Amino acid sequence: MPVNLSTPVAAQLLPVAGVSLGVAEANIKRPDRKDLLVMQFCDGARVAGVFTKNRFCAAPVIVAREHLAQSAVAGSTGIRALLVNTGNANAGTGEHGMRDARTSCAALAGLLGCKASQILPFSTGVIMEILPVAKIAAGLPGAVTNMRADNWLAAAEAIMTTDIVAKAISRQVTIDGVAITITGIAKGSGMIHPNMATMLGYIATDAKIAQPLLQAMVAEAANRSFNCITVDGDTSTNDALMLIATGKAALPEVADAGSKAGKALQAAISEVAIHLAQAIVRDGEGATKFITVRVEGGTSEAECRKIGYAIAHSPLVKTAFFASDPNLGRILAAIGYAGIDDLDVAALKLYLDEVLVAENGGRAASYREEEGQRVMRQSDITIRVVLGRGAENATLWTCDFSYDYVKINASYRS
């Protein structure tokens, strides 16, 4: 089961004015499961996003980028809906996949009375298999008929693949006396690695945000959340994080990141993104431990992240945590091969929660293995590395590797 993660409560997921969501069972991979989502936006809603950096990115990623670029040239986003399917990634499908992504957009546009270029497509599932467009087209009328403002939990369930628990959260923040709502959903469990992860994330707010700031906000939120997680070190072909601002709240347009409203919105949006990102790690395939890796005292944030990722990606570190085996020299080894050539290992300190494990280049004199094992038996653990060479820091989140991770991925297509 996921590590300290429970299913969201539908009543706690707040509608966002100007957003409606509909789901359907299109039988894309298997019957009797929600696998199709339509998110429709009011006229004037603005959309921004960040996408995978995998060079083998999926057809829907390419089409979504094109449609966003086209709408930006027109002077307004003009995006009216997102179309998401699970069960098939439409990646590694060449020109056929591009045609299928465009055909799916056209099918939904016909039902919503808009242009195909106003639809952003997203797919997740098995790579290098042809998208069953006919099934998607057949399922779309049901999804459109099903659209409601309070359908966030069903939407979160409709985008799951190997996820065990749906991932969704709402937050409200009051700015100049106006209550602003932010609600988000995400999926992801395996093939999780920064830039971004095998995840799809959708966050909506009723605030009115200028398009350039909206793009900056989603990039900042991604950098502080989904680009700080790793499950297995694999970067997906399909991931994307989208931020939608409907402008329905009675708050003047926010255009300045440094303003009181800009800072409050960024903090709340990032909080939602961090919650969703951590939920992905807690639901990591076969995960039994949620591990925070905090690297402090570096010369730059990039340096701290580099060391943090070396620890978080290490199969030897992750398997040791699964077994609750305090073989903590593995962490020192990962720090050492992170690529910081001038690192002074004698100045470094390593902690497990509050337990000092290593200092002065080796085991701390006060360290007792039973204390290390006590911490490693917990479901939530913090690895803290103090470099002693600067004032910068970074925090990442990861999980352990269990037998179930291999079982899940060995039989993923079955």
From TrEMBL:
Keyword Calcium appears in the UniProt entry: no
SUPFAM superfamilies: DmpA/ArgJ-like
GO MF terms held by the record: L-glutamate N-acetyltransferase activity; L-glutamate N-acetyltransferase activity, acting on acetyl-L-ornithine as donor
Catalytic reaction equation(s): L-glutamate + acetyl-CoA = N-acetyl-L-glutamate + CoA + H(+); N(2)-acetyl-L-ornithine + L-glutamate = N-acetyl-L-glutamate + L-ornithine
Alphabetically ordered keywords of this record: Acyltransferase, Amino-acid biosynthesis, Arginine biosynthesis, Autocatalytic cleavage, Cytoplasm, Multifunctional enzyme, Transferase
Site (Cleavage): A197, T198
Protein's cellular compartments: Cytoplasm
Active site positions, chain numbering: T198
Transferase in keyword set: yes
GO cellular component: cytoplasm
Task performed by this protein: Catalyzes two activities which are involved in the cyclic version of arginine biosynthesis: the synthesis of N-acetylglutamate from glutamate and acetyl-CoA as the acetyl donor, and of ornithine by transacetylation between N(2)-acetylornithine and glutamate.
HAMAP family linked: ArgJ
Family in the record: Belongs to the ArgJ family.
Subunit structure of this chain's protein: Heterotetramer of two alpha and two beta chains.
Record-given protein name: Arginine biosynthesis bifunctional protein ArgJ
UniProt organism field: Candidatus Gallionella acididurans
